[in-house]
Design goal:
- The chain is of the alpha/beta class.
- The protein has a single domain, classed as Rossmann fold.
- A 4-stranded parallel β-sheet has the order 2-3-1-4, sandwiched between helices.
- The longest helix has 20 residues.
């Protein structure tokens, strides 16, 4: 489908995924699906693993349905594992739509600074992320390499690769 895109955000908490997803949705006329927002709206928390997995599955099902109807979708899940990204890319390609991967990264101290700021505001103040959580997630995160990034479509305005962080400047 010409012009229809699946836009994936990839990165650790605090990298700027939701900020970027919001901007991409507005710029591209796409529907944004942010897992954490749905969990909170349903009265759950991002720490509820069974509910998080169910919500993620339903949002991915909805994303595929929308793509099939010709609606571009921004999936704001984090996508820490290469296998998740491969599965979504393959499914979207089977639907005949383009797929972009927007990978954001930042140094640990910058991620932690952003997370601490987020932890002080609702709804995160009731379910804060700890420094030990971030460090564990950083160890398990499978960052996309250049070969993987080359498997995705380039955004209309530039080549594939890393995105800008929420305050401008390259996010590393």
């Amino acid at each position: 489908m010409r012009g229809v895109r699946l836009l994936l955000t990839c990165g650790l908490p605090g990298a700027g995924k939701t900020t970027l997803a919001t901007r991409l949705a507005a710029e591209r006329g796409a529907l944004r699906l942010t897992k954490d927002e749905w969990l909170i709206a349903l009265g759950s928390t991002p720490w509820d693993t069974p509910m998080r997995e169910r919500v993620e599955g339903e949002l991915w099902r909805l994303a595929q349905e929308l793509l099939g109807l010709g609606v571009s979708v921004v999936v704001d899940f984090g996508l820490w594992a290469r296998a998740e990204r491969d599965e979504m890319r393959s499914a979207a390609r089977a639907l005949g739509v383009g797929v972009e991967l927007h990978f954001l990264e930042a140094p640990s101290e910058e991620l932690w600074r952003r997370i601490e700021a987020r932890n002080s505001s609702p709804p995160w103040d009731a379910h804060p992320i700890g420094r030990h959580d971030l460090e564990g997630w950083r160890r398990s995160f499978e960052a996309p390499d250049a070969a993987e990034l080359a498997l995705f479509d380039a955004p209309p305005h530039r080549g594939p690769g890393r995105d800008q962080g929420p305050r401008g400047g390259a996010a590393r």
